[in-house]
Specification:
Elements lengths: L1 E7 L8 E6 L3 E6 L8 H13 L9 E5 L7 E7 L2 H14 L1 H4 L5 H22 L7 H15 L7 E11 L2 E10 L2 E8 L2 E8 L3 E7 L7 E6 L2 E6 L4 H19 L19 H17 L9 E9 L4 E9 L3 E6 L6 E5 L3 E6 L7 E5 L3 E6 L4 H12 L25 H8 L13 H5 L9 H20 L6 E2 L1 H9 L6 H9 L1 H7 L3 H9 L5 H9 L13 H17 L9 H11 L2 H15 L9 H17 L1 H6 L4 H13 L7 H14 L1 H14 L1 H6 L3 H14 E2 L17 H4 L4 E2 H12 L4 H32 L6 H17 L8 H5 L6 H4 L1 E2 L1 H11 L10 H10 L7 E2 H13 L2 H11 L18 H13 L11 E2 H15 L5 H26 L8 H16 L13 H4 L10 E2 L1 H9 L2 H7 L5 H17 L2
Helix pairs in contact: 6-29, 13-19, 14-19, 15-17, 16-17, 17-18, 17-19, 18-19, 20-22, 20-24, 20-29, 23-24, 24-28, 29-30, 30-33, 30-44, 33-44, 38-39, 39-40, 39-42
């Protein structure tokens, strides 16, 4: 590898290098301790230096130096891991550089020429290199060490590396931590003690920052039940974030494909870089904070001051720019942020250069002034280009904006409509919220509740006049305070759309919902069947869903979403949530609100495994431990709260609270996200703390919580009793303790409002690893429980076998996005079908585990074995099929082992009839298959068909391959030759007995000659016994000319039983433990050498 020329003052510093070759201008050196004469104390010392110090010249065993005769200064220009690599560089220098150097007059010119040439070579390499790091030279050095030490496949992409200490017990090992796309690796070499660690990201159960008395700060990794600690990191937070992102990326790509969204930075595992991961993390945080569509990416960030008219001062913050949005968030604790869609910007004005300010004019006669922007001119031009505005300085927006003062004059309802994005949608199926239809407000009604409702509306209107209304409204603490107090019924739909970001989705996709409804109309799928079943279970007591109007709207929204997102389709709880959305939002708005909830605000909630809800339950448990220690002391097992709270998270408390109270919770959710649900959950437990502590079992605790939820009321709700869900019949019982929902929410914000959204997101990532791995472990235990009944392997052996099988499945997924194995993996299938191996994967793993080393991964025999054990002939082998084959070879009787080998050489058509190919199998097909397996009778040796001449010769060759390399190889070969000869003669005798009394004389010698020829061919040496004979002849069935003679399995078995050497060989026990350990080590190397 060519290196940037680096000056060295001493040619043989500390005598660590030995000169191999030299000439007038170049020196090729070998590092002591490597190659010939290496080892001993010198090798130990040099190896230790190579590990601890960060320099290629101290790591690579070979290097090339440049020098001139009249100078004592040397320059490193190349290094190499192997002698062959460095010799290639040396030869290139001899052929391309040496002749040119003679034309220069001075040493300075020679050195300058050599340095320029080497830099040019590195630049040429860099053009095709995918490494986009801050210091390419140091990264190249690290990549060299990474490839040398870990011997991973060449496709494995190194992302970054760090110097750190790895703790083995109480002893730290100083070395290097390497983070690649698929693996976490560590290497240390100190005074002869080598420590090498390779952990794939998909094996990690827990990843967290920890600290204790010994380790002030460290990163804890839990994998395969082992704890690993890394400390002494210069940039611990940066390292942890990169590790967290790589683990999350791996989990999404390999386990949770439903949630995996292709991103430009992460679409190809071969293209992932540290810079790309950091950009992706920032974009994800940006989208989450501002509730933007998943297509948006953070492009630019600028520090600035924003003039806020309601406070009459400039607030410090950051301008965040994406493809379609200009956003601002304060950094001074005022919790102020604003979102400006580019579609709403009508002009950008630049002020004088002294203030470095720009003013963004927005529809609705308002403007925002950003000051002290360092690169304000470029920012202004960028915004203009994205909005398609002319950059002419004479451009005036006076026709659109009456004044550029940052005040808000949006009292015009038409402007509000434009800002909210409620464009003309004459094609919409329903244009009114169901609450407006079924419970219109009576303007003349002046009862106390309606008066309070009017006061709330007035408070919000005042807020709108000060902070703006619509998509460009300022979000502040006051906004949250109004939300906590409760949103007026008339404004609920508008504000939900605004806070969730659904208003932007709808504005940028006009007509999308109407088209979806038309396309999905009349479709019949599993999702539509489930939707029809649940339609009348959605708020059945509400008048809106006792009529066809509400039911039809609910059907259209759910069916359209299932059509839009077939990966999610329809899940229970979506009907309850959508019902509430339809009460307060128009039908199209309810659809986009559902999109926002399912795809952004509650990620992974509504899928087959409800992973998102399980993750948030784990986050909830962490918060209980942190905030309610009294409860934790009494109830050490918090899994009870996980089971109880599942419906809280899935339905946002709608399923446990009366509808008039639940909508207040939904208000908070759309503003603060999952944080609001977590806070309320803590407040509920805190409110019932004493009762929960005194309860004796889980059933009593459930009763306490149910009674509490029944007692929650909304004293300010203007809804009539026909709409409210509160149980009137129980009022006399519950009158002594009624809890108002507004007070409960207010208490939740006061006590637990300090929970930060960033902490919740971090906790989500940390717990997602554990949740996914727990689900995977459940799958493994279920598979092992089924397979245990079929094989003689111990549970621990099956556990290790399953890990190898699953790892082999993933090995072909690591370096490509279009792996067939990724397509085959479907968590919704039966446990046994979730992980399956195709032929290439199977042959590689089977070659590592089969006991006799007779099966080369590329041999035809591998294909025969694969076809034999693929019971349903779908081109995939599951874990049960794989284990049953290995169990026969490891623990089967002599007869069963021989039967397995015998069946290998029979055409597949002779063994079984072909079943239907792989696909989505319905329940009836599974039941039929299960019944067939129960009724299946044990196969006897008499059921096996006879083997013809060609197949028998191939069978003999297979035996030779099995015996090759055995200590008794010669005796085994002789035994096989003896059995082969005996069988052929027996068949010849039998054939003669069945011949007619007067056969033609000419046929006798011919048949005899054929038998003798066959004996010789079957008795050939192993050199000619490769299993590469054509498989097509086997598939085609026996040739008519070969039907003259054949053998039954009984004949073969009886003949081989008479050879003690062969019987002894097949009955020899195999060390399964050792075999599994060797396979674990060799699995990656086999992939690397493929």
């Amino acid at each position: 590898m060519w290196l940037q020329p680096d000056e060295i003052l001493l040619k043989n510093a500390f005598k660590l290098w030995v000169t191999e070759e030299d000439n007038e201008y170049f020196v090729l050196q070998r590092r002591r301790g490597y190659g010939e004469g290496g080892g001993g104390l010198t090798g130990l010392l040099v190896g230790t230096l190579d590990t601890v110090l960060d320099s290629t010249s101290k790591v690579a065993p070979y290097r090339i130096l440049h020098h001139t005769p009249d100078s004592q200064v040397y320059w490193t220009i190349a290094c190499g891991v192997t002698k062959e690599e460095i010799v290639q560089h040396w030869d290139w220098l001899q052929q391309n550089i040496m002749r040119t150097l003679s034309v220069f007059d001075s040493s300075e010119d020679i050195t300058s020429f050599v340095q320029g040439k080497i830099r040019g070579l590195i630049a040429e390499e860099g053009k095709s290199s995918l490494v986009l790091e801050e210091d390419p030279e140091k990264f190249r050095e690290a990549l060299l060490r990474f490839e040398k030490w870990f011997e991973l496949p060449p496709k494995e992409k190194l992302v970054t590396y760090y110097s750190c200490s790895y703790w083995r017990g109480k002893v730290p090992c100083q070395g290097w931590l390497y983070l690649s796309t698929n693996f976490l690796c560590f290497y240390s070499y100190l005074l002869g003690a080598e420590v090498k660690l390779i952990i794939s990201w998909d094996e990690i159960w827990r990843l967290e920052k920890t600290s204790n008395v010994i380790l002030t700060e460290s990163i804890h990794v839990l994998a395969h039940g082992e704890d690993h600690y890394f400390s002494m990191l210069m940039h611990l937070n940066e390292t942890f974030v990169i590790m967290e992102q790589l683990a999350d990326y791996s989990i999404k790509r390999l386990f949770d494909k439903e949630a995996f969204q292709r991103e430009p930075a992460l679409s190809d595992p071969m293209q992932i870089t540290k810079r790309g991961l950091e950009a992706h993390a920032k974009s994800e945080q940006f989208r989450t904070f501002f509730r933007l569509p998943k297509e948006e990416n953070l492009l630019e960030v600028h520090e600035s001051f924003l003039w806020v008219p309601f406070s009459h001062f400039n607030t410090l913050g950051k301008i965040c720019l994406s493809e379609n949005y200009l956003c601002f968030a304060s950094q001074d604790g005022s919790q102020c942020h604003v979102i400006i869609p580019m579609r709403e910007v009508i002009n950008v004005e630049k002020s004088d250069s002294s203030s470095r300010a720009l003013t963004v004019c927005v529809r609705g006669k308002k403007a925002l002034r950003f000051a002290e922007v360092r690169d304000y001119q470029r920012l202004a031009n960028t915004i203009r280009s994205k909005c398609g505005i002319s950059a002419s300085p004479q451009h005036s927006a006076s026709s659109e904006v009456t004044c550029l003062n940052p005040c808000f004059l949006c009292d015009n309802p038409e402007d509000v409509t434009l800002m909210v994005g409620q464009k003309d949608s004459s094609k919409a199926v329903s244009t009114e919220a169901l609450m407006t239809v079924f419970h219109p407000q009576d303007v003349e009604n002046l009862d106390p509740k309606m008066l309070k409702e009017k006061m709330k509306e007035q408070s919000w209107n005042i807020h709108f006049s000060e902070y703006g209304r619509g998509t460009s409204m300022f979000f502040t603490r006051k906004t949250r305070d109004l939300i906590v107090r409760g949103v007026p019924e008339a404004l609920r739909g508008e504000l939900w759309m605004l806070f969730s970001g659904a208003v932007n989705d709808m504005a940028t996709h006009p007509g999308y919902y109407t088209d979806l409804v038309e396309q999905s109309l009349g479709t019949s799928t599993l999702a539509t069947d489930e939707i029809e079943r649940d339609l009348h279970r959605s708020l059945p007591e509400h008048p809106a869903f006792q009529s066809d109007t509400g039911i039809s709207a609910l059907r259209r929204v759910l069916t359209a979403y299932a059509y839009r997102n077939p990966k999610i389709g329809y899940c229970q709880a979506m009907n309850i949530l959508t019902s509430v959305l339809l009460l307060y939002a128009k039908e199209e708005e309810a659809f986009w609100l559902l999109v926002a909830v399912c795809e952004r605000m509650l990620p992974d909630y509504f899928n087959r495994r409800i992973i998102g809800a399980l993750v948030d339950q784990a986050v909830f448990e962490d918060l209980i431990r942190e905030n309610l220690p009294q409860l934790v002391e009494h109830m050490t097992d918090l899994s009870f709260f996980s089971s109880v709270s599942l419906s809280w998270f899935l339905t946002l408390f709608i399923s446990v609270l009366p509808i008039e109270s639940a909508v207040n919770v939904v208000d908070c959710f759309f503003y603060d996200g999952i944080k609001a649900i977590l806070q309320l959950g803590l407040a509920v437990l805190d409110y019932n703390m004493e009762a929960l502590i005194s309860c004796h079992d889980d059933a009593e605790a459930v009763t306490i919580l149910n009674k509490f939820f029944d007692s929650v009321t909304n004293k300010d709700s203007p809804l009539p009793p026909t709409v409210q869900q509160a149980s009137m019949s129980n009022n006399d019982k519950a009158s002594h303790f009624n809890v108002d929902i507004s007070e409960l929410i207010k208490e939740a914000y006061e006590k637990y409002g300090n929970i930060r959204s960033e902490e919740v997101e971090s906790s989500r990532k940390r717990n997602k690893l554990h949740v996914i791995q727990t689900l995977e472990d459940t799958t493994k235990q279920n598979v092992i429980r089924v397979v245990t009944q079929e094989v003689r392997f111990s549970a621990s052996h099956l556990d290790r076998l399953y890990n190898l099988f699953k790892r082999q499945h993933f090995l072909c997924c690591y370096w490509t996005m279009k792996s067939p194995a990724l397509l085959h993996h479907d968590p919704s299938l039966a446990y046994l079908e979730q992980y399956q191996l195709g032929f290439q994967q199977f042959s590689m793993l089977f070659s590592l585990l089969e006991p006799w080393a007779f099966c080369n991964p590329k041999s035809t025999l591998s294909l025969w074995i694969f076809r034999l054990i693929d019971e349903n002939q779908d081109g995939l082998v599951n874990f049960k099929e794989f284990c049953c084959a290995l169990d026969t070879l490891y623990s089967g009787s002599f007869t069963n082992k021989l039967k397995f080998l015998f069946k290998l050489h029979l055409p597949p058509g002779d063994l079984r009839t072909k079943l239907t190919g792989r696909g989505k199998v319905d329940l009836q097909a599974y039941l039929k298959q299960w019944q067939n397996e129960i009724l299946k009778k044990e196969e006897t040796i008499k059921d096996l068909p006879r083997i013809n001449q060609t197949q028998f010769i191939q069978f003999s060759k297979t035996l030779y391959n099995i015996f090759h390399g055995d200590p008794e190889e010669e005796s085994l070969y002789q035994a096989v030759a003896h059995v082969t000869s005996l069988l052929l003669r027996m068949e010849e005798v039998g054939r003669r007995l069945h011949e007619s009394s007067s056969p033609p004389e000419s046929t006798k010698p011919a048949n005899t000659a054929a038998a003798e020829s066959s004996t010789q061919e079957a008795s050939t040496t192993p050199e000619n016994s490769d299993t590469s004979s054509s498989f097509n002849s086997q598939d085609a069935g026996p040739d008519l000319t070969e039907l003259d003679w054949s053998f039954s399995f009984e004949q073969v078995l009886a003949s081989l039983l008479n050879e003690p050497t062969i019987v002894r060989f097949f009955e020899r026990p195999v060390d399964i433990q050792t075999k599994l350990g060797q396979a674990r080590v060799a699995q990656l190397k086999l992939k690397a050498n493929k």
